[in-house]
Write a structure and sequence with these properties.
about 300 residues, alpha/beta, Rossmann fold, 7-stranded mixed sheet, 10 helices, 7 strands
């Protein structure tokens, strides 16, 4: 995420992210993420609260970008009748999730009908059959997707008509203090771009979803030092993976200018780190195009009524 760019529209550049580099960062962080993922778990909890307002009894759930599986575990507990399928592009993260379970748990789950299923795959190219999923859940994975429009399209494809998508992502103001501080050092990208809430809503509709509900909130984390923020970003795998990032060391002079600019934002003795969190949910609409490419037109036939003669 950091060493993170600005609001974009549906013409969002699909090549801004160095995907292999991002994947490597998450895989290296897999062993330590559990200790520094408090923000992701809190956003997950707030997303789960929104499920209280939705009446749904899914029999299959996709956890897109499942990571170490905390969200999948929550979903299995909430919907014990559903099969939860976790998909993540970082295979080593999935392997770490399995190894973190006790041997007894792994054996029990292996012989259980409700055993967790984890698949290494990309949210933009889901290895799932069309129309087979009742509900899709994705916590912050879109923030690491270079083609969110394509990701929405893939989720729409695997969802059955009437299926629910619930997701979260970062908004454009995420780490705005860090972005501003780095702007005092050089013109390179140090903070990733994040998509505006309204643009995500437009993408949902264009991808075949209906009645989208979008909302946003701002969370401010505070740190005693810049090193604390840098450590959290690095250990959680959310370090800069933009294609146009500067290679090599920042340099003492540029680092000092960045550090001084960030220190100017200190409040009550703490350094702020703004996180703009976007939440959204929508329902999979009826398909508009048949498999052969022809448009599907809904026709309503008039109701014939019989009249009794007196």
């Amino acid at each position: 995420m950091s060493d993170i760019h600005s609001s974009v529209n549906t013409e969002y550049a699909a090549d801004w992210l160095d995907v292999p580099a991002a994947r490597r960062r998450f895989e290296r962080a897999a062993a330590s993420t559990a200790g520094v993922d408090a923000l992701a778990r809190e956003i997950e909890r707030r997303m789960a609260e929104r499920l209280e307002l939705i009446r749904i009894a899914p029999d299959s759930i996709l956890d897109a970008g499942c990571g170490l599986g905390a969200g999948s575990a929550m979903l299995r507990k909430r919907y014990p009748q559903a099969r939860v399928i976790g998909v993540d592009s970082a295979c080593r993260v999935l392997r770490q999730a399995v190894l973190s379970r006790s041997f007894r748990t792994r054996v029990r789950q292996f012989f259980s009908d409700g055993a967790p299923l984890s698949i290494c795959g990309d949210i933009c190219d889901l290895p799932l059959t069309t129309g087979t999923i009742s509900m899709a859940w994705s916590n912050l994975a879109l923030a690491w997707t270079p083609e969110p429009m394509r990701a929405f399209g893939e989720v729409a494809r695997v969802l059955a008509p009437g299926g629910l998508l619930m997701f979260s992502s970062y908004g454009p103001d995420t780490l705005k203090e860090l972005r501003a501080a780095f702007a005092n050092a050089d013109a390179s990208a140090h903070v990733h771009p994040f998509i505006d809430m309204h643009d995500l809503g437009d993408m949902l509709v264009a991808s075949g979803f209906v009645t989208p509900v979008m909302d946003m909130e701002t969370v401010t984390l505070t740190y005693a030092s810049f090193e604390g923020l840098s450590r959290d970003l690095r250990l959680s795998g959310q370090s800069n993976a933009a294609r146009d990032r500067a290679r090599g060391m920042l340099g003492r002079g540029r680092f000092s200018r960045m550090r001084a600019a960030y220190e100017a934002a200190r409040k009550d003795g703490r350094l702020p780190a703004t996180i703009e969190v976007i939440y959204g949910h929508a329902w999979r609409g009826e398909p508009r195009v048949a498999k052969d490419g022809r448009a599907i037109i809904q026709l309503k036939m008039p109701v014939r009524r019989s009249l009794k003669q007196r």
